[in-house]
Design goal:
Strand content: 35-45%
Structural class: alpha+beta
Helix content: 10-25%
Distance between the termini: 100 Å
CATH class of one domain: Mainly Beta
CATH architecture of one domain: Beta Barrel
Number of helices: 4
Strand order of the largest sheet: 14-15-16-20-1-19
Number of strands: 20
CATH topology of one domain: conserved putative lor/sdh protein from methanococcus maripaludis s2 fold
Shape: elongated
Radius of gyration: 41 Å
Amino acid sequence: MPAPPPRRLPTFVAILLGVAIGAGLMFGGVWWAFSGGGADGVSGASGDAAAGGAPGGPAFSAPPVDVVAAVETIAAEQVQLLGTARPARQSAVASEVDGLVAELFVDEGDAVQAGDPLVRLRTTAVEQQLAAAGAARDETEARLARATADFDRLASLRDRQAISAREYDQAVADRDAFAQGVRRLEAEVARLEDQFDRATIRAPFAGRISEVTVEVGEWVDRGNQIVSLLDLARVEVAIQIAERYISAVPVGFQVDVRFDALPGRQYSGRVHAVVPEAIPEARTFPVLLHIRNGDLAIKSGMAARVSAQLGSPQPAMLVAKDAVVRRGDQVLLFRIDPAAMPGAPAGELGEGATGVIAQVSVDPGPARGEWQVVYGPVSAGEVFVVRGNERVFPGQPVSIANIRTPVVPEANPDRPIAIDPRQSEQ
């Protein structure tokens, strides 16, 4: 009796087995490479040592980086304040004349330049009056020209005593009367031309329209608001500062400003004015900050968080600006830790040494030159990556190619780095 044919696995079972076998081989190879396995030493620790590489196999190569050591200095106390953004300049543009709205050139949100037309009122009556005044002026100018010619002729006859004094005086009076009439009509024409021009309401400065309060066909009286115009190229933030700090906030003082609606972005604000009268209930002084807003990202009404360095000086840590990495709302440093490397003595991190990356989260303080004040788990003498820190990750081995030594600002308790009113406005 013939043997029954062998049973075949279902197709999907065969596919699953193939995937499982392939995954097992792949992970086995990765484990082999990372563990430095292999009796022949080609990819293991002994092979790397023979080749002069870093321990741990080729998957853990130590790329070269530049570093700068942290230093200690003196900085003023950091104070957090709240404020609200508003335009440094805004206007409720009004009509200078009475009239009916004939044309509306803008809508809410539109950008305008200084002198751009916003609204035109109907000018039919003014145009008619202007035409009549112009015609009367031209007629009077013609009469003046004739009267002037008569006067010149009679003046020559008077010299020869060929006319009476009465005729001469009449010629003088006619000439002067027509000259006065021309001046009066020229003034009337100028007044009507100005009224015609003011019937077109123009933007007083560059900005954006936040509100339009009229429509075509609507009657407006002189002084009625037409549009609301905001200049957001520079915004103003009003904050309240306690009286114990106000003497440390001169005009020109620099602060850091962040907005809840713009995460990851930091702006530099300058004190524009310090109101000399305190709010009695709170014993605080209003202070106005100006912030440049070239891309118009800051909008009127946004909540602002102001970080000001005020109060008594206290110790603070400085790191190189290039060591600071911003990832969203996080401010990170990448320290090189020598103790984490097998066989590496702690505290010895010279050029050519190797170490392991440790990620440190900090809060930024004021900046000065090439340095940045940071608040967090940072100690003087620790070295932080300043070149290549965008590509490193915690636990990664690195080698120190270069130790940079920027000039360190003097730690002067009488002049903390945050208070320097002589800095020119950016």
